[in-house]
Structure formats: C-alpha cells, structure tokens
Amino acid sequence: MSADNWGVCPQCKVSRERDIANTERAVAETYGKVSVEKFDDARARLEAKRAEPIQYTLREDYEMGLDEDGEFYVIYSGGCRECGLTHKFKHSEQVDLTGGAA
C-alpha cells in the first residue's frame, strides 16, 4: 500500500473551528472595553486566523481489487500527522463465480 491521498483531518477541522469560535467570542467580549485600536488589532488577528489555509495532514492509504481466486477486497487506513487521529477499515468478500461468462 502507498500513500494515495492527503486530506483534511476531520478532527483537526473541528478543533480549528472551535478555536476560531472561541476567538470570536473573546474579541466580541472586548467590544467597548478596550481602545478602538486594540479592538481593531484583535479583529485583524481573528480575520488572519480565519484566512489561514486548512492543512492537508491526513495521510490516506487504500487499496482495492479482485484477486485471481475471486476475492474482492478493500483496505483503508488514515492517520493525521498533526493530532494523531487514526482509522482503519478492511473488508473482503468472495465474488459469486457460478454465473458463467457474460
């Protein structure tokens, strides 16, 4: 199996969204309590955080095929290099070989 794909980790995505929401709340709570300059700086940092591109940290390896004995198989594994999320899936089933040639 080889690395077939790099994707967005769903766990990292949720964490990023939570971090942005927390920052939004923190900025909103400062409204009227800090100088306009400090508030504008906080909003600019929030916008910069929102604009950061989502990283492709989830390595996905997968393989599927049909072997010479008629066994169909799917093997998947994914792992995030940032947060450590992992998932594995493996399935195989015998294809009905009694149908004859089409």
By DSSP (H or I, 4+ residues per run), the number of helices equals 2
Q: Write down how many β-strands occur, each being a DSSP E stretch of 2 or more residues.
A: 4
Q: Mind telling me the C-alpha Rg?
A: 24 Å
CA-based shape: rod-shaped
Largest pleated sheet: 4 strands, antiparallel
Biggest sheet, strands in spatial order?
1-2-3-4
> In angstroms, what separates the terminal alpha carbons?
32 Å
What fraction of residues sit in β-strands? 25-35%
Which class of secondary structure composition applies to the elements? alpha+beta
Mean pLDDT, nearest integer? 94
Order of helices and strands: EHHEEE
Percent range for helical residues?
25-40%
User: Unreliable runs, pLDDT <50, ≥5 residues?
Assistant: none
Number of individual domains: 1
Give a description of the structure.
With 102 residues, the chain is α+β, with helices and mostly antiparallel strands. The chain has helices at residues 10-30, 36-51, and strands spanning 3-7, 58-66, 71-80, 86-94. It has one domain (3-94). It is built from two helices and four strands. A four-stranded antiparallel sheet has the order 1-2-3-4, with no helix packed on it. A hairpin with a 5-residue loop joins β3 (71-80) and β4. It is rod-shaped and about 80 Å long. The mean pLDDT is 94.
